[in-house]
Design goal:
The chain folds into 2 domains: 2-75 and 141-227, Alpha-Beta Plaits, CATH 3.30.70; 236-373, Immunoglobulin-like (Sandwich). Helices cover 19% and strands 33% of the residues. The protein has helices spanning 32-47, 52-59, 101-110, 234-237, 241-251, 283-290, 341-351, 370-373, and strands spanning 2-8, 23-24, 64-65, 69-70, 76-78, 83-86, 97-99, 127-129, 133-135, 139-141, 145-153, 160-171, 176-182, 186-189, 192-195, 198-202, 206-208, 219-227, 259-264, 295-301, 304-311, 316-324, 329-334, 364-366. Bound molecules: zinc ion (ZN).
Amino acid sequence: MIHIAVKANSPLALPSYHFVSNEIETLDYIPGSAFRGAVAYKLGEELGYDSPKFKEIFINGKVKFGNLYLLREGQAYPIPKSAKSCKYKDGFRGHGVIDFLLPTVKFMLAKDASVLPVSCPICEAPFDTFSGFYTKGGKRVEPTKRLITRTSIDERTLTAREGFLYSMEVIEEDQEFYGILDGDLLVIENGEIKYENTTILRKRETLWVGLGKTRGLGNIKITEIENLESIFPPELVLSAVEKRFSKFQEKSSPLNIKGFSITLYSDAIIMDKFMRYKSCIDEQYLREEFDLDNVKLICAFNSMRAILGWNTAWGLPKEKELAIEKGSTFFFSCAAEGKNLIGTLERIETEGIGLRREEGFGRVFVCDPFHIENLPQDWEV
Ligand SMILES: [Zn+2]
């Protein structure tokens, strides 16, 4: 597993979606699909799009390219959707952040609304959703962005089309992002990431992601390449699934059930057998995909979003797809004597879930400590 860091040399425009508008918003991270597309373009030019190596890496998907999230005062993680904070003074350093996952499980089981916190413990203001990214240092972070205005270019004459202006939101330059490259045959040699003797990326190399290359947007530089024991952040590696699972049982003992959470670190595209997009990970999915029995979905904090389909190998747009949004959180109860439960949970974390995993989709955390580290103050245990 290879950890990389990149720096934006120029503003980045990473729209999530095809647009028909003169205002274009950017995502606040570099999606694995855009990063993979950039590397595919580079390698396609170097090796040839028909070369067996290129096909192996990109068509057979032998290398997974993760999303690149903000790297500022440490790595940033998507905030779970079960988090809420004071409407007027939010944040870890404001009136605090409360995770509603276990309280909601308790509510669902007891059917007693009094177990749910109703207002800010400090000022009694209502709660509001708390979204975006956070660092393990307890801070909400987001990349700085700005709007740029551009004239539209006439595709045929390559001159400005008079009167056609549009504004585009961009991530400002000089910010850093980090992510993971994952593949059995990947190694690092002399500052280069290699797939069986083929160099995929080099330190200090630059690539183009997103829109506006001809206008100088989207240039990123590889600043760090490092081998990691695991695809997971150091905080999670230190406590393996088994340990996190048992910590979870400790904290959820007021509920009198065994259970675990699955929290999406990146958007996940899940389809049922009739090719319909699912809005939820549920027990049926876990049974069919991972042979996990005797589990039951108790509660979910989830949302969906439309994403741009992009066939990187052919450079063609795909149809719109629907994904369960990163930060979505699910709690399952499980039988006391689940057969090899921990092993299966480890596999879910290692392999990820759903479609397009090679583009960074479907990365999950099992029993993310966030849910037990931000419980209401009067939570027993
Ligand atoms: Zn407050």
